[in-house]
Design goal:
The chain is an alpha/beta fold. It has 13 helices and 15 strands. Helix 5 packs across helix 11 and helix 12 packs across helix 13. Bound molecules: flavin-adenine dinucleotide and iron/sulfur cluster (2 copies).
Length: 356
Amino acid sequence: MVVKKGAKELEREVIKAGLCTSCGACVDICPYINLVKERAVIIEQCGIDEGKCYNFCPRTYVDIIALDQQVFGDNRKDAAIGSYISILAGRAKGDEIKNFAQDGGVVSALCAYAIDSGMVDGVVLAKSSDLIPSPIIARTKEEILKSAGTKYTVSPTLIGVKDGVKDGIEKIGMVATPCQVTAARKMQNMGEEAIKLTIGLFCMEAFFSGDFYEYLNKKINPSLIKKLNITGGKLIVQTDNSPVEIELSEIKQFARPTCGVCLDVTSEFADISIGSIGSEEGWNTIIIRNKIAEDLIKGAEEKGTIETKPLLEEKIELLKKIALKKKKSSIGSIEDKKLGYLKLSEEDRSQIMEAL
Ligand SMILES: Cc1cc2nc3c(=O)[nH]c(=O)nc-3n(C[C@H](O)[C@H](O)[C@H](O)COP(=O)(O)OP(=O)(O)OC[C@H]3O[C@@H](n4cnc5c(N)ncnc54)[C@H](O)[C@@H]3O)c2cc1C
Ligand code: SF4
Ligand code: SF4
């Protein structure tokens, strides 16, 4: 669905309302929009009243029913985590990827396989430089390994996708947070054909880089930080010395406000969604949503890149419970703030509100 609104409304409804996720979808499509200090900024109004900037944005009108139809050709079967075919646990085989990866390394392993098999020519990933992530287009295993690991601040992935299109890459893959996957689907709806694979991450929230790292660097010398991991209500900072544990409640203040109105924990519109909720340490939880994902997993397993096993039903239920809890809280905030950006079916809304 294309809405007849442009940069003026994007500025009022999203940017000034503090809802920008910094996905990068509106940036660089005209000379007047840029990202400054992790927010979109409109330098000058162009006057166009049906802008791609407005229509690509994951915080303008999102019709979940229409998106389900667009991506999966059907209504959703599950109010908590969206449409899916199966859910597995998995991990990369061998130590090479696992040594760099956040959890089981399935994301990095699938990116490598997707390039090797010709499914895509390159994958947009988040590369960290001095802890600040930015999008890169990885074409080799070495580049994939250099970008492995979770950055809990935003990398504007859609800028990387558009750079790839400008460079003439015909088949682009992307690893993205749920809001970024939504933006990619909205771009496809308006004719963007180069995106051939969306690997979505699970995501509960992301932080503003500046504030978050300033706080962290006061506690820990940044040159000692090896890895960050949020688990069990704590941020665990792996260092050259012993790990440092920080209560999540202490860093909540750096979370982006837009994450509080986000309904999507599991990248519901991705081809395949990957996280750790529900899996034991060193493994990933994998949601296979469509045929693209089925082929990817089958091919990577046959090639010996990854191994999988069924995920216990009780762990799947745990994942759904966590996703529903976040949805319920976000629906509350959306309704409190009278935001009109989201359309979901009445049936799904009541399932979410009654679930817990
Ligand atoms: C902001 C954020 C919050 C998350 N919160 C949760 C959560 O609450 N629960 C949960 O189960 N999982 C969460 N995840 C996903 C989880 O941390 C792992 O990324 C996932 O389990 C895949 O593990 P892996 O070992 O396969 O990843 P790897 O093989 O290490 O690959 C990770 C990939 O993610 C890309 N990436 C890293 N950071 C970003 C970013 N900010 N934006 C876009 N791409 C990025 C990297 O470039 C890399 O390709 C979150 C991820 C992010 C980015
Ligand atoms: S498209 Fe992305 S970067 Fe632009 S305003 Fe919307 S959320 Fe922010
Ligand atoms: S919680 Fe939602 S809005 Fe925030 S980064 Fe994750 S997907 Fe984007």
